[in-house]
Amino acid sequence: MRVLVVEDEAPLAETVRRGLQQEGFVVEIAGNGLDGLWLATEYDFDVIVLDIMMPGLSGYEVLRRIRAQDVTTPVLMLTAKNGDHEEADALDMGADNYLTKPFSFVVLIARLRALIRRQAPQQREILTVGDLVLDPGRRTVCRGDAEISLTPREFGVLEYLMRRSGEVVSKTEILHNVWDSHHHGPDNVVAVYVRYLRSKIDLPFARATLKTHRGVGYQLTD
């Protein structure tokens, strides 16, 4: 699941990034309203976390402009203010939820997941490759009647491969879309997670749906 965090306080933005990544989210950070507006209108995200009080282009104005461009991505507003008027203004302008700083990270995660689940029934999105079924909204994976337990990162890798089923996907593409564009570690981490996945979705079921194309990438097929 892809999250855009628009927050001008760099330490807070980095803390939120690390926490969300540990929960399996792919996170992009924008340090100001203009960058946030550009990312929100140029790329697809599952949810946007948007600070209200920013210099230059405020969160209110970013929200107004993205809604004017028919961007329907759920938006959770963040603010240091604590008052009914600010909350009402955000909701009236098209925000989907609201959280006051300082906030509990557990509450932030719960609200983001709730916003994503709320969208899922509208999108009616279930990913299927053969008898392998992944539900992004409920975050479940099944092979036939057997439910498979995955870590957040394993889930992210599998979801990306299922969205590109039949295609050969490179390690770089997986890193960019499942980790994030700021990951600078070795790309061998992808091979490690592919092995983890294979041990859970293929080997126990005597299948070989997750294929390695040496020097090229990985492919999930029926």
- Mean of all residue-level pLDDT scores: 86
The third-level CATH topology of the largest domain is Rossmann fold
Question: In which range does the helix fraction lie?
Answer: 40-55%
Q: Any idea what the CATH architecture of the largest domain is?
A: 3-Layer(aba) Sandwich
The level-1 CATH class of the largest domain: Alpha Beta
Write up this protein.
- The structure is a single chain.
- The protein has 222 residues and is an alpha/beta fold.
- The protein folds into two domains: 2-122, Response regulator (Rossmann fold, 3-Layer(aba) Sandwich); 127-220, Arc Repressor Mutant, subunit A (Orthogonal Bundle), CATH 1.10.10.
- The protein contains eight helices and twelve strands.
- It has helices spanning 10-22, 33-42, 59-68, 84-92, 105-123, 152-163, 171-179, 188-201, and strands spanning 2-6, 26-30, 47-51, 75-79, 97-100, 127-129, 132-135, 140-143, 146-148, 168-169, 210-213, 217-220.
- Strands 2-1-3-4-5 form a five-stranded parallel sheet, sandwiched between helices.
- A hairpin with a 2-residue loop joins strand 6 and strand 7.
- Helix 2 (33-42) runs parallel beside helix 3, helix 6 crosses helix 7 and helix 6 (152-163) packs across helix 8 (188-201).
- The chain is elongated, with a radius of gyration of 19 Å.
